[in-house]
Amino acid sequence: MTRADIEAVVAVAKAYGKKVTAHVHSDQSGRDAILAGVDSLEHASLLEDSTIDLALKRGVAFSMDVYNGTYTDTIGRQQGYPEIFLQRNTYTTEAQRIVFEKAYKKGVTLLYGTDAAVLPHDMGAWQFAIMVERGMAPMDAIRSATSVAAAHMGLADEVGAILPGTRPTSLRFKAIRLRTSQPYAESIW
Ligand SMILES: [Zn+2]
After folding, report:
1. What is the pLDDT of residues 148-183, one digit of tens each?
2. 138 cis-preceded (ω within 30 degrees of 0)
3. What is the pTM for the complete model shown?
4. How far is the C-alpha of 120 from the C-alpha of 86, rounded, in Å?
5. Where are the domains of the chain?
6. How far apart are the CA of 23 and the centre of ligand 1, in A?
7. Fold for the domain defined by 3-188
């Protein structure tokens, strides 16, 4: 999509009071989407420093599925994906994790992202450990999946916190060991 295309999408969405997220991997796509006025970026894998800075300045959040490259590599080797695909996955996985580290240090709002359906749904919690391994404080990782995500969606009064008046939380943590390497997360609903 061109920047004009994205601007048109944003204009229509805003007219209806909707948030807009852009599915982007490249730096150019990320920059175009931010300048077009989106609220968040999915993946944000290959952003340059200047684009991360621009996101911070414009208040654009990132939803980064930082674990998923490991899953793709594991499944890809089991199922015989072409080597070129696996190499590219290895490259983009590490590149995205580096962007995640930079974005966290700079103070970009980070929303917990699973890229749902790439992983089995009961592995949704596996992002947490990579987030912490790559520099995020454990409580910030939990907030990214609860109160921070709720606030981003304009739902802070309803979900994302355990408070009187909020709906019962849909996240139920059984055992998440953020400070150890294995297993990352035993279970999460
Ligand atoms: Zn995606």
Report:
1. 999 999 888 887 776 677 665 555 555 455 554 444
2. no
3. 0.87
4. 20
5. 3-188
6. 6
7. TIM Barrel (3.20.20)
